Amino acid sequence: AAPLASAQKVEEFNYDEAKVGTYTLPDPLTSKDGKAVKTKSAWTSRRAELMELFAANVYGHTPKQPIKLRFQTTAVNESALNGLAVRKMVSIFFVDYPQIPSIDVALYLPKNKKLVPIFLGLNFSGNHSATTETDVPITTRWVYNAIGDVSVNNKATEKSRGMQVSSWQIETVLKRGYGLATVYYGDIEPDHPQGWQGHIRSVLDSPSETVPSASNNWGAIGAWAWGLSRIMDYLQTEPDIDPKRVVLIGHSRLGKAALWAGAQDDRFAAVISNESGEGGAALSRRWYGETVERINTSFPHWFNAQFKTYNKRVADLPIDQHELLALIAPRPLYVASAEEDRWSDPKGEFLGAAHTEPVYKLFGKTGLGTDTFPAVNQPIGQTVRYHIRTGKHDVTAYDWEQYLKFADELVGK
Ligand code: GCU
Which atom of ligand 1 is nearest to the CA of 295? Predict the structure, then answer.
């Protein structure tokens, strides 16, 4: 569950399908100069154009400069999860920026297996929240002050251990032959407007973007996405992981980050967006649930400054979120919603996924293969999949069951 629900308090949102109104989506297969994109090679240029449009108008430009990393194993448990897994704790350090905190990876690998496929996902509350195992250290980094005593003065307490086990399902994932790597997202950047200070955005900028207030600078979502690629750099060095079968998963704001990371880094074999909503899989132009204005107001640090200029004119956005999803093509993509998570606009997420179809077709693939919104708990699709399950904003065992099946079928065992 999300640690922060303050955005729900505001009024400017619509939950009435009859009031959504009409809108015209930009066509992923029409380039800026008006030309129709009909071939894979034409898509390569159109894709680059879309990447630039998302960087310039939504997430900001991710710095491209190479960065020297050092990977340090801090602990190994050869018999984690009652002998099911080997668990390694690995810290990623930035050699030229010793002042930047490390990114601390908890990596679970099935025992005695070679070249395993793996899921990678950022977590909301610390690696210790994904497991009840007492030898996983409680994060010492800044965390949200949550309700109850799971955190005090922005520090996690022992009470938060295992708080999110149901959202990670580590044992099930391991038993199905996959590894799992997770990282606390606050290692990369703490989730508040000043969080960039002392973190990666304070040292890395795109050439033309020197201060965090520059209109096209990158935001926190950009930083989390960048961090996912650095974790990928590390995973590529692990001999027991198949580097070609790393499946990226993210929930909610971290689903937004996963999609942007998957768009930018094609080393991710597949991407799963769990209830990523506004700025993720949901169409911005659909007036339902969270809006561009609302998200930019509640979370001014997530996107770039240019995105805020669309607060009252979403129709002027040169892109919409189906085009972000299309940047994952031809790789497998899963978009998931929950019935009671109206804030994320389930229908808008479904339409985002459905409107990737022409791009998957260009690669000879069937995406969702349908325009019909499915009933609850009825997963649909081929290379692009979608479900809306019963229940609230969360990642559940039901969601994981679908993701494992999707990975079995499309990423291979
Ligand atoms: C808030 C925010 C959403 C976000 C969610 C979460 O509800 O408005 O955009 O997805 O938090 O991260 O759980």
Answer: 8
Q: Render pLDDT for 277-333 as a digit per residue (tens, 0 to 9).
A: 999 999 999 999 999 999 999 999 999 989 999 999 999 999 999 999 999 999 999
Q: What is the pLDDT of residues 14-46, one digit of tens each?
A: 999 999 999 999 999 999 999 999 999 999 999
Cα dist from 268 to 80, 243, 272, 359, whole Å: 26, 9, 11, 18
Secondary structure of 339-374 in HEC code, one letter for each residue: CCCHHHCHHHHHHHHHCCHHHHHHCCCCCCCCCCCC
Q: What are the DSSP E strand ranges found in 221-364?
A: 241-251, 270-274, 333-338
Collapsing DSSP states into helix, strand and coil, what is residue 307? helix
Name the token pair of 396: 């559940």
8: left (phi over 0), alpha (psi -120 to 50) or beta: alpha
Cis peptide before 207 (omega within 30 of 0): no
| Predicted-complex ipTM score | 0.98
What are the pocket residues of ligand 1 if the criterion is a CB atom closer than 6 Å to any ligand atom? 2, 4, 7, 252-253, 277-278, 290, 295, 298, 343
In the chain, DSSP finds a helix count (H) and a strand count (E) of 14, 12
Tokens of 55: 């960087």
| pLDDT, averaged across the chain | 94
Atom of ligand 1 nearest to the CA of 252: 10
| Number of other CB atoms surrounding residue 193 within 10 Å | 13
Task: Tell me if residue 215 is catalytic.
Answer: no
